[in-house]
Every structure is written in C-alpha cells, then in structure tokens.
Amino acid sequence: MENQRVRLTKRLLKDALISLMQTMPFDRITVKRLCEEAGINRTTFYLHYNDTEQLLLNAEDDIIKVAKDMIIGPDRSRTSLECISEFLSYVQLNALHFRALLTFKDSEIFIQRFSRDVIDSLKPYLSGLNMPEEKKDYYLYYVMVGSLAVIREWITSGFRIPANEMAELLYRMTFDVINKPSDT
To answer: Which of helix, strand or coil describes residue 3?
Structure first.
C-alpha cells in the first residue's frame, strides 16, 4: 500500500503532465519540464516512473479504473442511466484530464484501451442482449468509441449540455443501437 506522500507525489506528477498536455504535444514533454511543473526533483520522478510514457499510462489506468467502477460499480442497484450520469459528472469535474487524454495526438491508443477495458468489464452484465453472439463485440465497440467521440465533443464544446441531459442522450443512442441490431 502506498503511503500518503507517495500518492501525493504521483498526483502532482499526473497533474503536471495533464497541465503540460494542455499547451504542448506529449512527445515534447520532458522529465525535466514535468518535474519543474510539479515542483519535485528528477530523482523523485525516477523513484516512481521510468519515463513520461509510463506516467501517461499510469494516468490513463487511473481514469479507466474510475470509469469501470462508476459504470459498473459495486452497487448494481443503480440504473444504467444513473451510472452514465455519474460518470459524466466525473468527466466534467476532471475536464482537463479527459480533454488531454481524449484530444492529444495519440489519444486513439487511450480510446482503444479505455474501450477494451470497459467493454471487457461490462460483458458479464450484457448476456441478455438481443444480438448475434459473433457480432456483439462489434456493437459494443461501436457504442463505446461513439460514446467517447460524443464525450470528446461535449468537452471541447464547453459542456453546453448539462451532464444529466448528455447522459440521457448517450443512454438513448446506446439503447437504440444495442436493442435494434440487424439480423444480418
């Protein structure tokens, strides 16, 4: 278990990374610049990460874990719409993180990881879907990647629609795709 100081150091580094990603391409962010932004020394950085790519992967892992916990969660008594709404509220509260991870040059890699991990976590709960088993993954990836594209647009447009309305929109679009698959 990490102690509080380690967690704080990692949080400072992740926040510095996200802050820098708002103003420069990821591939131009150096360990030196990251440490300056975070207010820590390079030795401390290397105690926790090998390089900036590992820090980025760790930041992505944190987002994916929270997303899975919110979308699936330990409490299955919540409706799908409630789970989506809670997740979108989280996105809005962490807009800088999501903006950086969904809009930087290599965001496609994050989108693929996010989609795969969330879909794999959801599959046990989706056994009753009305669609051919051999096509289920395609429908699920279509919905997930499409939802992330909508969320990215929602973020970049400045959250013009409240989170609960966006949740209803995503829920409706997802429901339409998953519940009306073609037989072919």
So the answer is: coil
Fold classification of 73-179 is Tetracycline Repressor; domain 2 (1.10.357)
If pLDDT is split at 50, 70 and 90, which confidence band does 74 have? low
Query: In terms of DSSP H, where are the helices of 94-135?
Result: 95-103, 107-122
For 78, phi then psi, to 5°, come to -80, 150
Q: Assign 23 to helix, strand or coil.
A: coil
95-103 and 80-93 are packed helices; what angle lies between their axes, rounded to 10 degrees? 90
**What DSSP character marks residue 72?**
T
- On whether the CB atoms of residues 155 and 99 are closer than 8 A, the answer is yes
The phi and psi torsions of 47 (rounded to 5 degrees) equal -70, -25
Q: What are the sequence ranges of the domains in the chain? A: 73-179
Burial of 121 (0-12, 13-18, 19+ CB in 10 A): middle
- Within 8 A by CB and 6+ apart from 182, the residues are none
CA dist., res. 127 & res. 122, Å (int): 10
Residue 72's pLDDT band, with cuts at 50, 70 and 90, is confident
Token duo for residue 24: 């420069």
Residue 59 and residue 41 in contact, taking contact as beta carbons nearer than 8 Å:
no
**Helix 31-38 vs helix 4-21: angle between axes, to the nearest 10 degrees?**
110
